[in-house]
Every structure is written in C-alpha cells, then in structure tokens.
Amino acid sequence: MLTDDARARHTPSPSRPDRMADALRVLLADDDVEARRTLVELLASFGHMVVGDVGTGSAAVEAARAAAPDVVLLDVHMPDGSGIDAAQRIVAERPSTAIVLFSGDHALGYADVEPAGAVTFLAKPVPPPSLDAALRFAVQQARALAEARGDATQARRQLEDRKTIERAKGILMRRTGSSEQQAYRILQRTSQDRSQSMVQIAKAVIDSEPGAH
Questions:
Q1: Which of 53, 98, 204, 207 sees the fewest Cβ atoms within 10 Å?
Q2: CA angle (172, 176, 178) in 5-degree steps
Q3: Which domains does the chain carry?
Q4: C-beta neighbour count of 156 within 10 angstroms
Q5: Three-class SS of residue 74?
Q6: 3-state DSSP assignment of residue 109
Q7: Which of 125, 68, 131 is nearest to 100 (CA)?
Q8: pLDDT tens-place string over residues 143-186
Q9: Per-residue DSSP letter, 182
Q10: How many other C-beta atoms lie within 10 A of the C-beta of residue 163?
C-alpha cells in the first residue's frame, strides 16, 4: 500500500494532455479497498484509464473479459484464491493482455509468478515511478510477444501454402506433361480467372485427385 505522502504527491491532476497518447487501459484487482482506491487515483494521475477495479480473482477474470484491458495489475493473494490462478485464466483467454502481479509477501519473487504469464512482479509498497514504468514495460513486452506469435503463425501458414502449391504443380505436371513453370502459370491464370487465391486453386487440384477423400 502506498504511503499517505506518496498519495498526496500523486493526486490526479485536472488535465494531462501530454500523457493521453500513452494512456493504458488498466484493470486493477486488489482485495484491500483502501489500497485499491489509492491505486485508482495514482493510475489516473499517470494518465491511464482504469477500466475496472475489483476485489477478487474471479471478478478480475470477468472484468478482463468484458473490458479488454491493455494490462491487469493483480494482487497475488485474493480472498477467493490465488491471483496467480486468475492471471493464468486471463492469459489463456486473452494472450495479448499484459499481466503485472504484486504482493506484500516478500518471500515471493518473479520465479513464483512467471508460470502465470506475468511480465512483471512488484513487491508492495510500490514506488509510484516504478509502478508506471512497470505497467508500460509489461504492455510493451506483451505486444512484442503477440507480434512475434503473429509473425510465427504467418510464417507457418506461408510455408504450408507453398507446400500446397508445390504439390498441386506436381499433379498438373503429371497430368498435362507441362513444365514446372507452365504448371505454375496454369495455377496463376486459373486464380485470376476465378478471382480466387492460388492456394484455393491448388487445394482444388489436390482434392480432384482420385482417392483424395
């Protein structure tokens, strides 16, 4: 929990236009009502939008599902179970959401929360500058990871598409006696004539093979 001095220094300012471009959608989950109120004010002072503040892990899962936050700030110890369990459920449903876990239990460390998909672990009390930096870092890392996953998925799809086209070319070469280049042009021309992708045409060629089904 933040100290009274820290709270006084970080009351929300009336307008923070310089930070709006960097505003994050934050979901806060902490069973300590007073600490939660303080954190809501602090997060607003950073220019962030608090899209929900809840007191249980199950409520955090529901709120993440409904509010689509950029980052979830989640207490490890919750009255209805571990915040780690809630984090795992959130990540399973929304892999691109950043998770920041925090706790007053100084026996815990990042190794204890890493399996939950947490990007960062913070020990209470959290210095305000460290909190803001941790949230921004977590979102950066989560977005980079999501982009890398997307790139990997696209690369796998492109590889499978190439294999499909190569297989279809082989079938056309056998059926028509055409060269590899000619078979490719047949696929390309048919794709243009039918306004379908070459992969769709290639799959149709493969499906037309006897015993394909």
A1: 207
A2: 80
A3: 4-126 (3.40.50.2300), 153-207 (1.10.10.10)
A4: 10
A5: strand
A6: coil
A7: 131
A8: 888 778 777 777 888 888 889 999 999 999 999 898 988 998 89
A9: H
A10: 11
Number of Cβ within 10 Å of residue 78's Cβ equals 22
Is 76 within 8 Å of 113 (Cβ atoms)? yes
Alpha-carbon dihedral sign for residues 158, 161, 167, 169: negative
Decide if 199 contacts 161 (C-beta within 8 A). Answer: yes
Question: Regarding beta strands 71-75 and 98-103, do their DSSP bridges make them parallel or antiparallel, or are they unpaired?
Answer: parallel
Sign of the CA dihedral 125, 131, 133, 138?
positive
Cβ-Cβ contacts under 8 Å for 84 (sequence gap 6 or more): 76, 101, 112, 113, 115, 116, 118
Q: Which of 35-39, 148-152, 161-165, 205-209 bottoms out in mean pLDDT, i.e. has the lowest?
A: 148-152
Q: Is the dihedral of CA 193, 197, 202, 204 positive or negative?
A: negative
Q: Which two tokens stand for residue 138?
A: 């977590």
What CA–CA distances, in Å, run from 98 to 58, 59, 82, 171, 184?
Answer: 17, 17, 18, 47, 45
- Provide the token pair at 57: 């892990």
